[in-house]
Amino acid sequence: MRYFQIIQKTDYDEKNEQLTLIPQFKLVTIIKARNRREAFNKYLKSLKKTTYIEYQINKSKLEAKRIHYPVKNSNELIFVKKLE
Q1: What are phi and psi of 72, to 5 degrees?
Q2: Cis peptide leading into 23, omega within 30 of 0?
Q3: Of 29, 40, 31, nearest in space to 64 by CA
Q4: Which residue, 22, 30, 26, is CA-closest to 4?
């Protein structure tokens, strides 16, 4: 079993409440799993159903994307990275 980071990448700055050119990276959680796919699936299962519906899920790339949240034209991308 290995540890994997679930990371959120967004172009919205929460402190200044505006869009930025430099993407912001935020660690969402750390999950223990056998591989990246299992870690991604565990994270998706842990989400509330209303939050899960808002994401466009790409299981081949192991990414989840949410658009127009919390302001228009902002993107939020969730992806899995191995913890080293």
Answers
A1: -65, 150
A2: no
A3: 40
A4: 30
